[in-house]
């Protein structure tokens, strides 16, 4: 008897339980065989049907195009989502945005070569002064921004366009409307399952990432909200930590290995003084550097090829 393998997409991962979709569009619950595979939503995996037990086993994770990493409880780098080409970093006037969380998502995306887009949801609500200031900082940094509302429908066409041909993920704090946005972009038949699952839990909060296919081509991942997001420091761009405006300004620094902290003739610090970089974003940069120094040399070492 031949035991044919097949490749499938991970459209949901709940601990060791995953849900995979075959190229024919069939969904199966599956579980990794043997050792910890670290499978995340968006992964491509090699599978095998176990006819005897009526199960699908995941044998291996196929090489990833991109990986979004965070720091786990043990301080190590842990994959969160795989094969993204766009990260939709969502903020809203309510609940009050945490700019450091937003910065860190942007840094992680930038360092992983995933194109980040800032999505301001609940545009139907009045922006607070703090939010306006925050947005100014991101505009200075050069981030593309979409203003949308899952309630009024404003900006949804632009959001659809931003997802076209991409594997995009909605990330950010809890309650900012990621699932509401996903529900507006995804055909009713697909999201229903999620809505039912949530209703059964008696709450709206998303508990696991799920991948959906978009009608015009492209994929959208809805992810659980976070209170904080710690990027994996070992996977941040060593010279800029993934701060876009630092990368732009740093070409003018006197030292090639300038950390943009106390070095003389630092073009980044000068840029902050000249209003070319938001002082709050610079403070965010310094906090990440401090964290890196606290955690030790392993976290400062530039990533090696293949390492
Ligand atoms: N006014 C307004 N409310 C919105 C909008 N989008 C979502 N909401 C509301 O915000 C609340 C949270 O929405 P969700 O879509 O569950 O938020 P989420 O980001 O998925 O939350 P988690 O799953 O916990 O991460 C709900 O009560 C929505 O009705 C919007 O554009 N405008
Ligand atoms: Mg949600
Ligand atoms: Zn510098």
Describe this structure in words.
- The strands form three sheets. Strands 10-9-8-11-13-12 form a six-stranded mixed beta sheet. Strands 1-2-3-5-4 form a five-stranded mixed beta barrel. The chain has a two-stranded antiparallel sheet with strand order 6-7.
- The chain is globular.
- Residues 303-307 have low confidence and may be disordered.
- The chain folds into three domains: 5-61, OB fold (Dihydrolipoamide Acetyltransferase, E2P), CATH 2.40.50; 67-222, 3-Layer(aba) Sandwich (Rossmann fold), CATH 3.40.50; 234-299, Orthogonal Bundle (Ribonucleotide Reductase Protein R1, domain 1), CATH 1.10.40.
- With 307 residues, the protein is α/β, with parallel strands linked by helices.
- The longest helix is centred in the C-terminal third of the chain and has 17 residues, at 279-295.
- The protein has helices at residues 99-111, 129-141, 156-163, 178-185, 188-201, 244-249, 267-273, 279-295, and strands at residues 5-14, 17-22, 27-32, 44-50, 55-61, 67-71, 77-82, 86-91, 115-120, 145-147, 167-171, 210-213, 219-222.
- The chain is built from eight helices and 13 strands.
- Strand 9, helix 2 (129-141) and strand 10 form a beta-alpha-beta unit.
């Amino acid at each position: 008897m031949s035991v044919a393998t097949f490749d499938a997409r991970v459209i949901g991962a709940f601990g060791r339980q995953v849900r995979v979709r075959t190229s024919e569009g069939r969904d199966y619950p599956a579980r990794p065989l043997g050792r910890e595979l670290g499978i995340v939503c968006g992964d491509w995996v090699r599978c095998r049907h176990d006819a005897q037990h009526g199960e699908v086993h995941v044998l291996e994770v196929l090489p990833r195009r991109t990986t979004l990493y965070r720091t786990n409880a043990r301080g190590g780098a842990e994959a969160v989502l795989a094969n993204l080409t766009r990260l939709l970093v969502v903020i809203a006037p309510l609940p009050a945005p945490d700019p450091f969380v937003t910065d860190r998502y942007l840094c992680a995306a930038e360092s992983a070569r995933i194109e980040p887009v800032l999505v301001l949801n609940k545009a139907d609500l009045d922006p607070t002064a703090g939010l306006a200031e925050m947005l100014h900082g991101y505009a200075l940094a050069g981030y593309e921004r979409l203003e949308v509302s899952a309630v009024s429908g404003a900006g949804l066409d632009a959001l659809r366009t931003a997802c076209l041909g991409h594997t995009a993920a909605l990330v950010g704090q809890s309650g900012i409307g990621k699932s509401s946005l996903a529900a507006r972009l995804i055909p009713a038949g697909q999201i229903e399952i999620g809505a039912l699952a949530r209703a059964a839990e008696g709450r709206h909060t998303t508990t696991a990432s799920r991948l959906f296919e978009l009608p015009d081509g492209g994929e959208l991942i809805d992810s659980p909200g976070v209170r904080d997001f710690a990027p994996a420091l070992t996977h941040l761009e060593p010279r800029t930590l993934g701060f876009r405006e630092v990368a732009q300004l740093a070409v003018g620094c006197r030292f090639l290995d300038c950390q943009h902290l106390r070095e003389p003739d630092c073009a980044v610090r000068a840029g902050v003084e000249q209003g070319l970089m938001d002082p709050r974003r610079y403070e965010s940069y310094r906090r990440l550097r401090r964290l890196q120094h606290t955690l030790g040399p392993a976290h400062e070492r530039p990533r090696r090829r293949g390492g």
